Amino acid sequence: MASLEVENGGDFKVPVFSSSSELLESLHEKWSSVKKQPYPAMYSSVYGGVILDPAMMVIPMDDHMVHRGHGVFDTAIILDGHLYELDVHLDRFLRSASKARVASPFPKSILRSILIQMTAASKCEKGSIRYWLSAGPGNFLLSPAGCPASAFYAIVIDDDFSQHKEGVKVVTSTIPMKSPLFATMKNVNYLPNVLSVMEAEDQGAFSSIWIDEEGYIAEGPNMNVAFISQDQELILPCFDKILSGCTALRLLQLAHKLVEQGRLKSIMTGNLIVEEAKNAAEMMYVGSTLPILPIVTWDEQPVGDGKVGELTKALSDLLWDDMVAGPVTLRIPVPYGK
In 116, 149, 150, 208, which residue has its Cα 20 to 30 A from 133's Cα atom? Predict the structure, then answer.
């Protein structure tokens, strides 16, 4: 391995890798210090297969998703060796791709098969998978016309998540949220989301709440938000200007059990102004990896009595039970060892 030294650069020398073997040796040295591999498998249509070597889990710099943000993504949970709501997420994934004008290199059935086989190869039984469709590599121009083919990438994330029993603090975000066109597709342009979370962390909060330009409650940076009113109504903001969360939609279905039990009065989606939302008895985030995260403080004010509400706990149990032992149509067994 050679090195370059530029005049006035002091003692700093840039390594120059003259062969792939030298580069791989350096990358393997980096990963050898990691106690637990967080990404046990990746798929790349550029490579044409599943990768188990973390040193090779990379995508091309000239991929249009990297330098222009021209791509979409989605996710699914792995729990007890099953993929939860994979088909629902894949349907949304392809809707997002259509809006972003990214053609899939494979039909849905093949995408599904790739994700199941990748998860099986990973041996991971608890965590998540995340997958992307990109306009593909080709050049660094603005238009994707010079990209020969779109690309599909996916990765397994080993993560020991569990139900959230404790509540968190949130703040109202001052970062402008995305326009409805971009907010309703799950695209990779997440800089507003990143800045919104960083703003919350600067204030000692877990995350934030977006308010749309009309003054209605919208969503969190990467999760939906739900409320229990003082009259025991479950209310979620309308999905016309925000991402329709797969977990949020499933929650709306499962919550009918609490209505049948007389614990919830009703279930609805609608426009909520800030004053109405802050008067709620309970508040929660809803998202795939949560699935419910109670919110007990908003802008330094307690939500309800400032404690995790009983209906929030009940909704969390409903979703968790669905993930663990729900319908076979929602829980796809992963064929490990086959």
Answer: 208
Task: Return the domain boundaries, the chain.
Answer: 1-33, 34-158, 168-325
pLDDT in tens, 136-182: 999 999 999 999 999 999 999 999 989 999 999 999 999 999 999 99
CA-closest candidate to residue 296, choices 243, 212, 247, 228:
228
- Let me know if 186 is a catalytic residue: yes
Q: Which one from 186, 241, 265, 307 is the annotated catalytic residue?
A: 186
Domain 34-158 has CATH 3.30.470.10: yes
* pLDDT of 5 above 60: no
Reported CATH class of domain 168-325: alpha beta
Q: Are 255 and 322 in contact (CB under 8 A)?
A: no
Residue 171 to residue 174: CA distance in whole angstroms? 9
- The DSSP code sequence of 312-327 is HHHHHHHHHHHHHH--
Q: For residue 8, is it left (φ>0), alpha (ψ between -120 and 50) or beta?
A: left
Comparing CA positions, the residue from 213, 204, 190 lying closest to residue 132 is 190
Q: What angle do CA 29, 33, 34 make, to 5 degrees?
A: 120
Report the distance separating Cα 276 and Cα 274, nearest Å.
5
- Over the stretch 40-56, which tens digit does the pLDDT of each residue have? 999 999 999 999 999 99
Among residues 271, 335, 276, 295, the alpha carbon closest in space to that of 209 is found at 295
Render pLDDT for 203-256 as a digit per residue (tens, 0 to 9): 999 999 999 999 999 999 999 999 999 999 999 999 999 999 999 999 999 999
**CA–CA dist 243, 125 (Å, integer):** 28
To which H or E segment does residue 94 belong? Answer: helix 86-99
- Closest by CA to 95, choosing from 253, 196, 239, 287, is 239
What does the H/E/C string look like for 202-248? HCCCCEEECECCCCEECCCCCCEEEEECCCCEEEEECCCCCCCCHHH
